[in-house]
Amino acid sequence: MLDSKTKIAIAGVGTVGKGLIDLLLKYKDKQSKIEISAIASRKKQEFKGATFKNTVFFDDAKELLKFNNYDILVELIGGEKGVSKEIVFNALREKKNVVTANKALVSKFWHQLHSLMEKNDCLLKYEAAVAGGIPIIKVIDEFLLSNKISKIYGILNGTSNYILSNMLLYKKDFKTILSDAQKLGYAEADPKFDIDGTDTAHKLSILSSLAFGCYKNVLKIDNEGIENVDLQDLEIADSLGYKIKLLGLTELRNKNIKNFVYPCLLSKDSFIAKIDGVYNGIVVESNFCKKSCFVGEGAGAHPTATSVLSDIISLSTRRKNGFKKSHKFHYEETSLQSRFGSYYLRFTTYDKPGVISGIANQFKIFKISMKSMLQKEMEFENSNDATIVITTHNCLEKNMMKALKQINRQNFIRKKTVYFRIENY
Amino acid sequence: MLDSKTKIAIAGVGTVGKGLIDLLLKYKDKQSKIEISAIASRKKQEFKGATFKNTVFFDDAKELLKFNNYDILVELIGGEKGVSKEIVFNALREKKNVVTANKALVSKFWHQLHSLMEKNDCLLKYEAAVAGGIPIIKVIDEFLLSNKISKIYGILNGTSNYILSNMLLYKKDFKTILSDAQKLGYAEADPKFDIDGTDTAHKLSILSSLAFGCYKNVLKIDNEGIENVDLQDLEIADSLGYKIKLLGLTELRNKNIKNFVYPCLLSKDSFIAKIDGVYNGIVVESNFCKKSCFVGEGAGAHPTATSVLSDIISLSTRRKNGFKKSHKFHYEETSLQSRFGSYYLRFTTYDKPGVISGIANQFKIFKISMKSMLQKEMEFENSNDATIVITTHNCLEKNMMKALKQINRQNFIRKKTVYFRIENY
Fold this sequence. Notes:
2 copies of one chain form a homodimer. By secondary structure, the first copy, chain A, is of the alpha/beta class.
């Protein structure tokens, strides 16, 4: 393979697959050592020119189970089961290298995939699975290899970041901006996984597993989405010096690991708060490099294809048997209940006496102290209502949840109290 | 070399060398495939323990010219001539791989070093030469390999960024903050190269050469430092919504290449403006990934050593003869004279009639149009003076320089007019 060409078999020619072929065609000279030996695609596509002169075409990716003339399988079908899973596992069993953008598969079968890699001395690379246009896997796996990472956090989903940014920018509600995003191609027809935090959890699971050598089952990640973020919260947060962002966080302290996905307030001065629109941003904290921050487009055909191609090139120039990490650590889980931090609370109450003392009494019981309170005339809704916004000093999540439960039962409360966590990054 | 250890010879145990040894000692298990076969250091150092059991020690790095028992030379002495140059060239001639943090050497001998590499099929890696804690070389050379880069810009010098940030933060003048920085170890005893832009130019030269395959002679980079940035400019810029940063920029458009280093105003909303203190920040613009931004500590023992070790690991796991870039392009130089952009101007005048019209007349002659004007009472200095701040719409640098030359000759001008370019990133 040293001076010969690297043969790749591409499975799936959707958005990312088309992007990859674009890149290969655009810079033929740079990629002259890559040969496409097979393309599997359900749709009839037109692939013309010298680049495809040695390419075999399949209608069904399952044909790749029998096809053997490739060095690297490039799996771009997606999904944690079915043909994508079959061909990836088959390739690794056949001691072939694999490049994939499939975050669901990689996060779910982390252990099995790594065991197969070690057993068969081959590699699966998945730069494209997390933050398309940011080489975060390379950073963690190759650059920060000699550092001890303590924390990784950031904005890992471009769709939800686009929605939150534009709700505030255009003063429109969630549904309107989501509909705009769908028209513009920034959100899928079924945007469930982007909006409810599942997509962020998949990516966080991969980052956590990679950085801490400890597989993080995605199903166990505490996971809240942005469905309930209201325009008025974005506006009030803004007036208080914050932005609301869907944050994914994985942190290792002593033997405790913490993984959360939720929308939260971030000071406008923090790096992460400044990342708007479809951009992703990731901060890695490590013992020797302190804080490193990476910002780029999180998705889209070309940034993601750049990641795929970077993996292909890396595999074709890298010797096997390099520096491998053990993935056998085990850590205790830290539950969200033990979070110690501050909160933004928006109470919708009837406009009558005794409201503040009703809230304050519960705060006292649960050892919560106020940092700021806002009770201006805010005519968002019904004029018989009062809106009170409180930010708190640090307290235990467990206490906060108990206090809110009690407060929500009070007869002066008109609507369930809205809360967000305030993070200091 | 496949399963055996990679032998490294370390030349120079100063700040970065000590940081590297720290990293190697701290994570022995991870770095178990690296063996230190030699250390050359002028100062007597104490190296104890199993890590050094096969290490030969030299007082003089020149001894490495005769020493042959290593796979990778790690040159951490620095400087573009003398022993560092000798041992690096000698190693490449001997077909050994080299890792260095030496920006002066790499930027000055770019062509010779690359010719030797190609001829002898060995590699010189220099991640640590640019922005210690940011893997920018890896990003350009491995991740964005399939993209066409159009522009790279950012804050490449931590010392000058620290000074500018803290002048504004603590409302102190240049000399006071520089002196503080020296006490805290953020500036060297002789900070000339950090402050006058030379250090930024070295790094920019490397980034430009790498991204555009065109060697950029560092001596030809237009280069202004921060010596003349006054506290009041930082304050006024702040009030106008800008920060002043020492920016390095390399840009390729058509066949024209542009390389500049100067302090300039950046909108507070831009990524780069938000990078304060000793942090470095680099933005890369490319055709497929659009805008990618990388932020981290730019210098210091451990971030820089992280880069060095990342290169060592990469060399020990990478096959030679990978994807190489040709470095044979030639582009025309674009001079700063042809810059088309906006400006911030601060005039110090006698407080008498006719001043504004005197300025405006010159603007008219040279086709410069005003965007904003500020003439508040600003009692920074002598109360007989007037201070006028003007920002302009886009105009040609050539015209602006001519206009300023004329204006500075007018009898109402008390002091040479201060100007900064305004960049929109």
